[in-house]
Design a protein that fits this description.
Blueprint lengths: L1 H8 L5 H29 L5 E5 L7 E5 L1 H7 L1 H8 L9 E3 L4 H13 L9 H13 L3 H14 L5 H7 L4 H13 L1 H6 L8 H8 L11 H12 L4 H11 L22 H12 L26 E4 L3 H5 L3 H7 L2 E3 L4 E9 L3 E9 L3 E2 L2 H5 L17 E8 L4 E8 L15 E10 L4 E8 L5 E4 L3 H8 L11 E10 L6 H5 L15 E2 L9 E8 L1
Helix pairs in contact: 3-4, 5-6, 6-7, 7-9, 8-9, 12-13
């Protein structure tokens, strides 16, 4: 009876659960074995090698080790232990290595995993340095992952310059610079780098998160102009010209460089674009200072919702005469959302600007100023909110665009649209939502670019197989059921629409909501 009762009391373990339990048990056993080995090493049990590590004799630390693990884990240790110069008695002295990082080396060599946590960029950099010093490739690759994890646009330039000979740090910096190129240009630290660092950056062959080579041109010019004196500025520009892929650019994009280009270079680049070699007896040859690479290095793609031609062919005056504009009420919100079929980085977006303010005073005034592209309509700004959500992650960021503030310096757009730069990662399966709210009082007027027009041009409405890597686009125009307080809007108080609240909002009574997002800039990770 007792055995029967015990059998009944024993829980039935299914096949899948049993395998999971076995895996967990083996993992626990491995952890215990690792812990026992490291504990024995720390006490010096069964070891045959001792290191004394640290620059200060009073604070130097002792590390016990196994020669067999050292031979297998590092060519450096093999040479060190086989060298006739290495003392056979007493500890081996390592004065130039910090004990904290040597401990990580010993962990990797003896148990093939780090038990000491890498908690910040200094730890990651130190680990990369000792991995290179002791010639441990696997640890170096692991350290590069940690360096990349802790990098930021403010720190990447200093590391890229300071540790140019450490391949693990350099590889992490290059990857970061390629993935977040534009952000790194905006960092103040970019203007402090040396010419050699800039040339090394331009020599990176991987694709970068830029729209075109002209962003690199503008960045180089910006850095050169920040230096003291015309001679130094010119020397920097002339030094980087051979590393810029100028053959991928149009004439307008070359304007920032024009004063530093030679006549020979100008002629070649002009004829290359216009293909007019018949003006010369012989076809001009490529100057040696012009990069021969003709393939753009950009990895950034553009999803165009509203073609440029639609904006430029419908000026403010044309829209006013034809009535193809819509007056926006206070508190209205424009929402564009989609689902990511692949993991992407959204680098920024363009939003069309208001045409004019439809007030009685302005209407009765001289309307010839309306839509004047030479006088930007800057008294209206947008507030925008990005939301990324899925089952595992929720991210939300609100920021304000004041026209030119977020545009790349020296690269402005027409008065028809303004640019936001704000990179955000959208993981596969996540929903990206962009909400735009005008900060102006009632009466601003926008081009009437209907949502249906957008979908008819580049998408199919309600089609889940839309342009890769996106799907399930949704465009809507919403307004609160109450009137917002204008003072609060002007004081940066957002009246936001949560994704879950969309169904509860009252849509603007129109045949179709209008779209105000012109372009979305992204690249697939």
């Amino acid at each position: 009876m007792e055995s029967a009762a015990a059998e009944i009391a024993t829980p039935v373990v299914k096949g899948g659960d049993k395998r999971k339990k076995n895996l967990k048990d083996r993992k626990d056993e491995d952890e215990q074995r690792i812990h026992r080995k490291l504990e024995a090493l720390e006490k010096g049990e069964g070891t045959d090698c001792v290191f004394l590590v640290g620059s200060d004799e009073n604070t130097a630390q002792t590390f016990h080790a196994l020669k067999i693990d050292l031979f297998a884990g590092s060519e450096y240790f093999r040479r060190l232990l086989e060298s006739p110069l290495t003392p056979t008695e007493g500890p081996i002295r390592l004065k130039l290595t910090e004990p904290h990082f040597f401990k990580m080396v010993m962990e990797h060599v003896h148990v093939y995993r780090l038990q000491t946590k890498v908690v910040n960029l200094d730890d990651a950099v130190g680990l990369a340095l000792v991995a290179d010093e002791f010639m441990i490739e696997e640890l170096g690759v692991q350290s590069a992952v940690f360096v990349f994890k802790f990098l930021s646009p403010r720190t990447v330039w200093e590391l890229f310059e300071k540790f140019a000979i450490n391949k693990y740090i350099v590889s992490a910096c290059k990857k970061f610079l390629c993935l977040r190129t534009r952000e790194c240009f905006y960092a103040d630290q970019f203007l402090e780098i040396q010419l050699e660092t800039l040339v090394s950056f331009l020599a990176i062959e991987e694709q970068m998160s830029i729209k075109s080579e002209d962003e690199l041109v503008n960045a180089c010019v910006k850095l050169a102009l920040s230096k003291n004196g015309e001679i130094e500025t010119r020397s920097i520009i002339r030094a980087v010209i051979p590393h810029l892929r100028l053959q991928t650019l149009d004439e307008d994009d070359l304007v920032p460089l024009s004063q530093w280009l030679t006549l020979e270079e100008k002629i070649f680049l002009t004829l290359k674009k216009h293909k007019l070699p018949l003006l010369f007896e012989t076809k001009p040859s490529k100057p040696p200072t012009i990069c021969s690479i003709k393939v753009p290095r950009t990895s950034m793609k553009t999803l165009t919702l509203i073609p440029e031609s639609v904006l430029l062919s419908n000026s403010a005056k044309d829209c006013l005469r034809s009535g193809k504009f819509r007056q926006i009420k206070a508190g209205e919100k424009f929402i564009l959302s989609f689902e990511a079929k692949q993991t992407v980085i959204i680098h920024g977006f363009d939003v069309i600007t208001p045409l004019f303010h439809f007030s009685k005073e302005r209407w009765e005034a001289d309307t010839s100023c309306i839509g004047n592209e030479k006088t930007p309509y800057n008294d209206i700004s947008w507030r925008a909110k990005i939301a990324v959500s899925n089952k595992e992650m929720d991210f939300e960021e609100t920021f304000e665009n004041l026209g030119r503030e977020y545009a790349y310096e020296g690269k402005f757009f027409t008065n028809s649209w303004m640019h936001f730069d704000y990179p955000v990662i959208v993981v596969k399966g996540s929903t990206f939502s962009l909400s735009i709210l005008p900060t102006e009082r009632e009466g601003i007027c926008l081009r009437e670019v209907l949502g249906n027009f957008v979908f008819n041009e580049i998408l199919e409405w309600n089609d889940s197989t839309i342009v890769e890597p996106f799907q399930n686009f949704h465009i809507c125009q919403l307004r609160k059921v109450y009137q917002p307080d204008h003072a609060r809007i002007n004081n940066s108080s957002m009246h936001e629409v949560e994704l879950s609240d969309i169904e509860n909002m009252q849509e603007e009574p129109s045949a179709n909501p209008i779209c105000i997002v012109k372009d979305i800039f992204y690249h697939v990770v």
